[in-house]
Amino acid sequence: MARAKRTDRAEARRQYRAYLAAQAEAQAAAEAEDAEIPSEDRGASARPARPRELDGGPAPGVRLGMVGAARAAFRTPHYLDDLRNIGPLVVRTNAVWPVAALCLIAALIAYPRINPQTVAADDTILAIVFQFVLFPLPLLPPMIAGFLAPRSTWLAGILASAISVVTLVALLVVTRMPIDSVNGHVAGGRAIQDVGVAGVTASWLSAALPFGALMGAGAGWYKRFLDYMGAGKQRRTSKSSSQKRPARRSQTTRR
What we know:
Largest sheet: none
Number of helices: 11
Number of strands: 0
Distance between the termini: 20 Å
Shape: elongated
Order of helices and strands: HHHHHHHHHHH
């Protein structure tokens, strides 16, 4: 029993040291990203970016239930810091390019099926493409961006929605598909060029960007929730495996 207690204490100390090392690495990464921003873009205060990944994280060895994981998954958004780091979010993470690839593939699938008399609701493939990817309130792009973004998930959702709306507008401009045919079962009508490309784009963006921010933030929360729900299982598995090793050593010592 005494040997098992010493093993448990040693394992707890090892987990705590690993936790402190992970915290230090996350802090260093946040400071490195902030150091890459030019000083004139930071404003007069020039305060360092706060470590967003360190907010609300559970300590090692703490078992989280569903409610605890849901609470720990929340993050306080730091809007100014996120906007300053929009470049690394686009270039150095996988939050944006999968969304751009998805929108491009959706446009390539929809393009040969569209003509000036097409009604999106009458074509199953077009209905799926418009409803989930290219509709003025896109669903999948901000969810994917928020799930893949390591931080600034609300901003990743906004960028994904903007890419989706721009792709839809470009598709309607090229194919001259009537706007009424996108939204309902009405055949014919005016093309987007007749209504005004700038006005329609601004109207769709005004609805899509807030929706994308909510979807991206929600997807980021859900990813952290899943991580915290699985963290307890991983810790319990590593603890049980570590307790078996000293027993084997004691047997070999007795021999």
